[in-house]
Amino acid sequence: MANTNYESFLSIDDLESFKIDNEIVELVQIETYNEHILKESILKIGKDICCAIAIQLAIIGYGNKSFGKVKYNNEEIDINDFFRKNKIRSDLTINSKLKPNDLTPRRLIRFFRYSIKDYLEQETNCQSYLFKKYCINKDELGRTTIYPGFEHLADPIINTNNVKKLIETYDYLDTRLGTHIKERIIRVLIARGFSKNSLLINNDVNLV
Description:
Elements: H1 12-16, H2 35-45, H3 47-60, E1 69-72, E2 75-78, H4 79-85, H5 105-111, H6 113-122, H7 129-134, H8 140-143, H9 160-177, H10 181-191
Antiparallel strand pairs: 1-2
Helix pairs in contact: 3-5, 3-6, 9-10
């Protein structure tokens, strides 16, 4: 075992002289997701059509860079073309860097998370692809809470059971598709105030 040479460390008194005036320090956030800025980007394009597309993507789904179409004001709109025309970034890679005003499919879904929930609550015959294909124990409460984006509005006081069902759904999806989406969902929920223990769905779940 290596021995620690404490003589190589400064004392607390020595380090005291290296303190600075906290008034001259201003921390800079590295978070690039800012809804105040995204709101301006959305308003420039059109909030209603952006909301319609977010609902389409969250409920019907998308994959392999194919986003399908949405019907808006009786007009069928190709979402891929819409994204290209409005410089919405749908071609991201793992190393892509986003600016605060960049719109992406996931950012649209996150921004319109309450609108998606309202749509599901009002359209009682509607189910998200996530609920329909990957939720094992379906019920009416799950129908209105299991969709991409719900993790960004879930409340740790009232939605513990909802998010457990959400995690179970993503766990099944990951098993079927070989993905790791559940890990990202858990990180989001912990950032929203959920405890790790409250998100356990079985004794084998690894939250690290």
